[in-house]
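Incident log, structure service

09:12 report received: a user says their structure output differs between two submissions of the same chain.
09:20 pulled the input from the user's history:
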Amino acid sequence: MAGMTTTERIDPPIAADETTMLTAWLDFHRATLALKCEGLTDEQLRTRAVAPSALSLLGLVRHMAEVEQAWFVSRLAGEDAAAIYWSEADEDADFNGVDTAEVAEAFSTWQAQIALARKAAEGLPLETVAKKPARGKEVTLRWILVHMIEEYARHNGHADLLRETIDGVTGE
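09:34 re-ran on a clean worker, output below:
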């Protein structure tokens, strides 16, 4: 993306307490997605994987903004946050709407949701139960952090394939 700053990705520590370890791995995966998007044009970021898939790097960024908000702001903090891209008319608008989406807005929204997620979790013990249940069950901050690491790791695999298809760039 033109004008995008270089992402600093910090390796998680080898030894640390559980909270530090989980948040470091989550930040590592957040930075990995940003790195997969660096240096691409807006059109390249909108490039779909393969028909009929709606998967694109920009869609992943928009999706992760929604996911950050859902798990940390809506569930953990219990706030009534309006959906960012999702709607009843298009539950996959995060992916489907990339053709006309403003790239800078999507990245800004994603980073804002990460900041809100960090704020929502700041200082909470891992055993903290989210204020709103997920999938009909109570979940803890620990569960949310582990789930978010899994969510990013899975989508970063998609991002690897998308980036390689776009310009041949591969890497961790």
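09:41 both user submissions now match this output. Likely a transient worker issue. Closing.
09:42 reviewer note: The chain has a mean pLDDT of 94. The longest helix spans residues 141-167.
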